[in-house]
Amino acid sequence: MSINDNMSTVGQYRLHASIEPARKIFVVIVEDHEGCGTIRNSVHATLDGATDVLREWVVDEFEGYEEFDDNYNSEMSADKIEELLSDELGKTAKVEQHEVVL
Predict the structure, then answer these.
(1) CA-to-CA distance for 6 and 57, rounded, in angstroms?
(2) pTM
(3) Please, which domain of life does this record's source organism belong to (predicted)?
């Protein structure tokens, strides 16, 4: 008889969750700070995937901002995008790393 034979489903989940390492996820957040707060967000498994989405959204949401033409934007890191938008426009567009247990 195994230990799992006597455990409830919830108990098995707790045991499993306590053994599994945390996994990284990357959350893309775009805010305009003009009354409506967060206007877009999404969750990704990789930093590269999240940064690609961030680049697209910045162009969509802040169209006309010369720093984000296609060539320049494709080379910027998520940190650089966040810094430019915060300093120049007072807006937030960033990728946050979080850890979750599945």
Answers:
(1) 50
(2) 0.67
(3) Bacteria
